[in-house]
Amino acid sequence: MAEETVKFAKGDWIVHLYHGVGQVISIESKSLDGNKVKYYKVQTKDSIYWVPVGQVDEERIRPLSTPKEIDKALRIIRRKPRQMSTDHMKRKNQINDVRSIGAIDEVAKIIRDLSARQAAEKLNDSEERALNHFTDRLVSEWSVSKDISMDEARQNLTEILQKCEA
Fold this sequence. Notes:
Largest sheet: 5 strands, antiparallel
Number of strands: 5
Radius of gyration: 18 Å
Strand order of the largest sheet: 4-3-2-1-5
Strand content: 15-25%
Low-confidence stretches: none
Distance between the termini: 59 Å
Mean pLDDT: 90
């Protein structure tokens, strides 16, 4: 078996599409079907998960955004929101597209646009859950990337969004 390339190191922060922000706490070998396989052991706020080193799916796992990338995301949020479709299925598809991409700039756009929609009219339940999900992800990533508390990041985001509504 070819040696797997290690993409992340112990201590690296990563963002998983489903699990959110986590830190690689170790790289360990485990026996699977008689083969030794290396895994990243990743700690999130709420859980631990394992990712095979040789099977890091770049569509699901990415490095933590840099402070510059967080600043860019915040600039996106400050821009004029895009009008979302009046068709709830089109909005649902847009949300699902962002959820499957997971890129910080796309997350920023959907937070901006859903927040503007929320200010204008009531979001449906799935849109409300999506806005909360994306907001939590951004706040968590912002907190780690900029080394601030989650409360401070959440408060700053709330202030930015309120200024945009005014």
